[in-house]
Amino acid sequence: MRIYEIINKKKRGHELTAEEISFVIKGLGSIPDYQTSALLMAIFFQGMNAAETTALTMAMVDSGERVDLSSIEGITVDKHSTGGVGDKTTLIVIPIVAALGLPVAKMSGRGLGHTGGTVDKLESIPGFQTAIGGDEFLNIVKKHGLCVVGQSANLAPADKKLYALRDVTATVDSVPLIAASIMSKKIAAGAECILLDVKTGSGAFMKDLEGARELAKAMVDIGVGCGRKTAALITDMSAPLGRAVGNSLELKEVIQVLSNNESPKDLYEVCTALAANIVFLAGQGTIEECNKKVHDAITSGSALKKLADMVEAQGGDRTYIEDPSRFPLAPFIVEVTSPQKGYISEMDTEGIGLAGMDLGAGRETAEDKIDFSAGIILHAKTGDYVEKGQPLATLHTSRSASVETATKKFLNSLTFAEAPPPQRPMIYGNVGFGL
Ligand code: URA
């Protein structure tokens, strides 16, 4: 087999065989980067069908270890969100489903750029450990029903190599490549049921609904092709989710939702829908019954207790969950007021994420340190009417010198109008339930 012929075949729009795809993935590192890059560009323009995308996923899964969850009793479940600003859904959804008897052995990423990572949010709790190895990881899941650790480097290592090349060759935004990248890590992580939360809007990878549906379908096809129960919800990311952006600020909002205490409506709606659909996918009743179970897990306090149990099992201080006022506040807390009256008609979610980064809430390179207390609390969102001088947001930071730039970036992210904008749904639809 010759890589030249494989590139040429894809360039002309032909289907690659599973053997050809496996040859490329096994050869990463020995095949020159310029040839792999040429193939990635050919895939970007010619696409891949479901069989090719599944073969690519499986070749990447086979490049590393698989997590064996067979010793865990019950139906193991996992979720993946394609990410966004203020996206703290994992930390709300997994304690709910764990409280309902569905074990979650979760590997999560760190944040890079304008989006935050679940692992960073959890590390804002003193003592919390995310570098937990094989047996201990499984033991915590067996005992408490959930555990969240950092993504293991041994899971689908080929994806890491391929992603590094995609990142510098402008081939990240290809549906088959994104789908195979995400699903290789999900399949290797071992859960029986996988619910995908595919975001659409100004803060998402997929800015438009059509692209989000295409990505959702590609990922669901891979999951089903690999023998996992897989489905997706398409949810809105045209504004930050909830009101908090930034690590400990978001964790406090998670606790607010799980305490059923003035939850932001959008965040509550998305999280309860995700949780109910996981429970449904795992065959625990009709969707109405699953919705009720999810609601009960919140109102009874059992989901919040699960989160505290997990925090303690992973070395963290559970009193931060029981009393979130313990999280330290940033030294500089500055209010941003509205420069005009009117309706907020649009929010550039990515711009708000970038303002949060200026304040210290995110990292530009993988080595950057995060300021856990930094971030933004939004007081008004898309569709709200504000008067001139009314508070729009509160900025939290240790970097007083960044306040001016972050304020400008934040205000530039907002569009005002005289009339209210059309209402956007939080959930656009689903893929894979056959509904
Ligand atoms: N997340 C991933 O893990 N891979 C991609 O290609 C895009 C987002």
Structural commentary:
- This protein starts with a helix and ends with a strand.
- The protein has 435 residues and is an alpha/beta fold.
- 44% of the residues lie in helices and 15% in strands.
- The mean pLDDT is 95.
- A 4-stranded mixed sheet has the order 1-4-5-13, sandwiched between helices. Strands 6-9-11-7 form a 4-stranded antiparallel sheet, sandwiched between helices. The protein has a 3-stranded antiparallel sheet with strand order 10-8-12.
- It has helices at residues 3-11, 18-26, 33-46, 50-61, 89-99, 118-122, 134-144, 157-168, 175-188, 209-225, 247-258, 265-281, 287-299, 302-313, 319-322, 349-359, 403-412; strands at residues 77-81, 104-108, 146-150, 193-200, 229-236, 244-245, 332-337, 342-347, 375-378, 385-386, 391-397, 414-417, 427-431.
- Helix 5 (89-99) packs parallel to helix 11 (247-258).
- It has 17 helices and 13 strands.
- Helix 10 links the parallel strand 4 (193-200) and strand 5 (229-236).
- The structure holds uracil.
- Tally of individual helices: 17
- As a percent range, the share of helical residues equals 40-55%
Give the percentage of residues in beta strands.
Answer: 15-25%
Summarize the main sheet: 4 strands, mixed
Number of strands: 13
- What class, by secondary structure content? alpha/beta
Distance between the termini: 43 Å
Bound small molecules, deduplicated: uracil
Strands of the biggest beta sheet: in what spatial order?
Answer: 1-4-5-13
Query: What value does the Rg take, in angstroms?
Result: 22 Å
Give me the strand/helix succession. Answer: HHHHEHEHHEHHEHEEHHHHHEEHEEEHEE
Low-confidence stretches: none
| Shape type | globular
| pLDDT averaged residue by residue | 95
